[in-house]
Amino acid sequence: MEKMSGEERRKMIVAELKKATKPITGKAFADRANVSRQVIVTDVALLKTANEPIIATNRGYIYLKEQDTGETVRRVVA
Question: Closest Cα to residue 62, out of 39, 42, 37, 44?
Fold first, then answer.
């Protein structure tokens, strides 16, 4: 399997997270993209910098979906 380009990986991460019903681990993304988990960590950091509402949990990454009000839900994890 060939490695995906960075742009392809980030598009895949966002698309998969948007349709996911439960958290997706960095390892699962790494296996799909044929890269290391650290590459996925970097990709997620870049996506967050680009204002994608992705958060990391102890079970994997989740995409914060919009509620019926049309406003993005934001959680503060201290």
Answer: 44
Q: How confident is the model over 39-76, as pLDDT tens digits?
A: 999 999 999 999 999 999 999 999 997 654 555 566 66
With beta carbons less than 8 A apart as the criterion, state whether 34 and 1 touch.
Answer: yes
Q: Tokens 């019926």 label which residue? A: 68
CA distance 68 to 52: 19
60 with 52: CB under 8 angstroms? no
Tokens for 78, please give them. 């201290």
Sign of CA pseudo-dihedral 22, 73, 32, 45? negative
DSSP label at 62?
E
**Strand 60-63 to 54-57 pairing:** antiparallel
Between the two ends of the chain, the Cα-to-Cα distance in Å is 39
